[in-house]
Each structure stands twice: as C-alpha cells, then as structure tokens.
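Chains adopt folds. We examine one example:
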Amino acid sequence: MTGKSEPLHTVIVGCLVRNAENQVLLIRHYRRGWEIPQGHVEERENLVDAAKREVAEEAGVNAEIGPLAAMWSMVSPSSVLIFGFLGRYLSGELNPTDDSEEAVWVSEETALEMVVSPTMRQRLEALLYYDGRVSYRSYSLKPYQLHLERDLLAWPDPTP
C-alpha cells in the first residue's frame, strides 16, 4: 500500500434542452447565473435518469434525453466529471424550484449573450455546436486553464 487515497470524483450531468421552436432552456442559478440545467448524479442513479431529474427539478419540465455530446474533467481544485447531453422538451410549464431562481426559453443567440461565466459558456457552446462527435476538455480553475481538448470518438484514419 502506497498510502495514497483512492481518487474521489463528483459526477455532474447537464442537458441542453430544445423545444419545438428550437429555443434552448436556460435556468438562473442563484450563484452562477444563467446556465443549462445541471447537477449532481445521486448515489445509484444512472446518468440519463439524473439528467431528466435535474431538468425537472430546475425548470419544472420533462425532457427526453438524447445523445451524450460533451464531457469535461475538472482536475483542480477538485475532481469533477461533467457529462453534457442534448435533450428535447416533452411536456410541462416552466416552473423553477429551490434549485433555480428562473427558467426561460431563448434563442441560441440570446443564450450565448446571457451565459457569462467562461466555464458555463464553454459548456453551452460545446452543446450548441455539437456535430456528432463527443468533445472532451480537461481544465482547472483559479485561474481557469484548459489542459486538453479533443474529440473522443474521432480517431485518425490509419490508411495512408
């Protein structure tokens, strides 16, 4: 035994939900400002169910969770894995709860103006511009520094 402790990671899911008018759902977090619905995965909860629950808890609507579009790994000051999904609005009226102060449907352009946190904006952009490849970024905070950026499903073609 080396005396090292096993790494502990917090797991977060987020979802960019679109409605039939192609508007995106944003919530206003009481500390972080505008962002997509997101939150911690609870013990014994799968990622898709966690994303559905977070959308319902933070915005009051039901969403179908689609593809995984992006992953982020915050390595400092703590270890956090963030899974970003795309989703489609199914039902319900916007009704923020204790987890958020406000929920709105806005255009992509307006969403980009409203989300001002650099970290949250980068997550929003990765999901808005999803091209079928899962993007991955590793970063640290205080100050923000990007360590690695790549597509997880893209692999160089081995043929000349």
Residues 47-59 form the longest helix (13 residues).
